From TrEMBL:
<keyword id="KW-1133">Transmembrane helix</keyword>
<feature type="transmembrane region" description="Helical">
    <location>
        <begin position="128"/>
        <end position="150"/>
    </location>
</feature>
<feature type="transmembrane region" description="Helical">
    <location>
        <begin position="21"/>
        <end position="37"/>
    </location>
</feature>
<feature type="transmembrane region" description="Helical">
    <location>
        <begin position="208"/>
        <end position="227"/>
    </location>
</feature>
<feature type="transmembrane region" description="Helical">
    <location>
        <begin position="170"/>
        <end position="196"/>
    </location>
</feature>
<protein>
    <submittedName>
        <fullName>Uncharacterized protein</fullName>
    </submittedName>
</protein>
<feature type="transmembrane region" description="Helical">
    <location>
        <begin position="98"/>
        <end position="116"/>
    </location>
</feature>
<keyword id="KW-0812">Transmembrane</keyword>
<feature type="transmembrane region" description="Helical">
    <location>
        <begin position="392"/>
        <end position="409"/>
    </location>
</feature>
<feature type="transmembrane region" description="Helical">
    <location>
        <begin position="268"/>
        <end position="290"/>
    </location>
</feature>
<keyword id="KW-0472">Membrane</keyword>
<feature type="transmembrane region" description="Helical">
    <location>
        <begin position="354"/>
        <end position="372"/>
    </location>
</feature>
Length: 439
């Protein structure tokens, strides 16, 4: 008698539409349940900013309130969404959090799609596992369900943009990057990734025009109600001058930098930091372009040759984790893109980089705690990290960045065939079909 094929039975069950629908329902239910414990908590950001913006819009004629967008320091696309919430029979807190949760689910959908490229087939369980983990990541759940922040909005578009880069749909990719940039300036953390994609001809440079086109198109409704175009176009430049500290609860290199109290010295360190970040971006771009893989992609772009999925995803994550680490005046939530993309990369290279999302989550969540507990009496001192504790937290993020950069360098130095053989020699980080395609 033959033993039953259990794994084949599981795969067969997963391929059935009712089972896949049930798994999708589980992801949505888990997303909602994970956010319930702090659903009614009002963070400082909600109390000081978000609810005031909501009520200003409600009290000043809805969209007509955007004739003076200076009442808020977010760009107008988010204010459009707040206007929509004012017409719903829900409280400001519930509406704002529900909006962010909806984009948590969109973000998980694109995580699902990215991991499904790595594990194709209707019977694969990994995409569902990735989507489930995406909604349960502590920083993701806390960001929307506790903090009432909206980082999943722009990050969902960034993750979607990466997906369409891998699908060789550059105009769709850049349209989503344009949507992300219209919502949040922090989208610039993945602009080095876009630069590498363009110079290696993974993305046509003409498609970059979609980014400013989308940004400007989303300004049109505000212009029609009388908003000052100068205010609309300078919203991000005004944001960059709001904070002067070298590190604002972000696990960055600046926790290792000691400066005297003089403003001039801090400004010098800030300038050097920006220059160093630019130099690192240029070096990474040069590595991608002049590596064997990069040269081959540039020479054969007309024939459809492209970077491997490993290279694309590692470049995106390297950009998302390295740029905010090197730039000064970064906030605690600025590693949100890295939080999500590190999960995708762990599924892409599970044997080599499974621990990267653990490091990134540990550092990001530790950075969240001082601010999340700020409004609760007796808790702020408990989570007010000392200088040495901040160095330890930042060290975790640095380790994650080094691991990703090392893996990216390795992938670019190897040709596609060598990369596939190396993966095979290590019990295969790539499925056979993908390894063949990478050749």
């Amino acid at each position: 008698m033959n033993a039953p094929n259990i794994s084949g039975g599981v795969r067969g069950a997963l391929s059935k539409p009712p089972v896949r629908l049930l798994l999708a329902v589980v992801v949505v239910a888990a997303c909602l349940v994970a956010r319930l414990p702090k659903w009614h908590a009002e963070s400082v950001d909600y109390q000081v900013f978000l609810q005031n913006w909501y009520h200003y819009i409600a009290d000043h004629g809805g969209l007509r309130a955007l004739s003076d967008p200076g009442f808020a320091d977010y760009n107008v696309p988010y204010l459009y969404l707040l206007d929509g919430l004012t017409h719903l029979p829900v409280s400001a807190l519930t509406g704002i959090k529900a909006l962010s949760v909806a984009f948590d689910l969109l973000q998980a959908f694109f995580v699902f799609k990215l991991v499904a490229l790595r594990f194709p087939g209707r019977s694969a369980w990994q995409p569902f596992a990735a989507a489930l983990l995406a909604v349960l990541l502590p920083t993701v759940a806390a960001n929307s369900g506790w903090w009432a922040q909206a980082d999943s909005i722009y990050t969902s578009f960034v993750v979607g943009g990466v997906y369409f880069v891998l699908r060789h749909r550059p105009w769709w990719a850049c349209t989503l990057f344009g949507l992300a940039f219209a919502f949040k300036l922090q989208t610039i953390f993945v602009f080095p990734f876009l630069l590498v994609m363009v110079v290696t001809r993974q993305v046509k440079w003409q498609s970059l025009l979609a980014i400013p086109a989308v940004y400007l198109a989303l300004d049109v409704p505000a212009l029609l109600v009388g908003a000052d175009p100068v205010q609309l176009l300078t919203v991000y430049s005004r944001q960059t001058g709001s904070y002067q500290s070298l590190a604002l609860n972000a696990p960055s290199l600046y926790h290792f930098v000691k400066t005297p109290g003089s403003t001039g010295t801090a400004d010098l360190v800030r300038t050097v930091g920006v220059a160093f970040a630019a130099a690192v971006v240029i070096a990474l771009t040069a590595l991608a372009v002049f590596s064997r893989t990069g040269r081959r992609a540039v020479r054969r772009a007309s024939t459809g040759a492209s970077l491997t999925p490993n290279q694309v995803l590692l470049t995106a994550l390297a950009s998302a984790v390295t740029v905010p680490m090197l730039l000064p005046s970064m906030h605690d939530r600025y590693f949100y893109i890295a939080d999500v993309l590190s999960l995708v990369v762990a599924f892409q290279l599970p044997r080599r980089l499974w621990y990267v999302p653990v490091l990134v989550q540990a550092a990001s969540l530790a950075s969240y705690l001082p601010f999340l507990y700020y409004e609760l009496p007796g808790h702020y001192r408990k989570y007010h990290w000392s200088a040495n504790e901040w160095r330890l937290i930042s060290g975790l993020m640095i380790l994650a960045a080094l691991a990703v950069l090392t893996a990216a360098v390795r992938e670019y130095r190897c040709g596609p065939a060598e990369s596939a053989r190396a993966a095979s020699a290590h019990d295969s980080d790539q499925p056979p079909a993908e390894a063949a395609l990478s050749r």
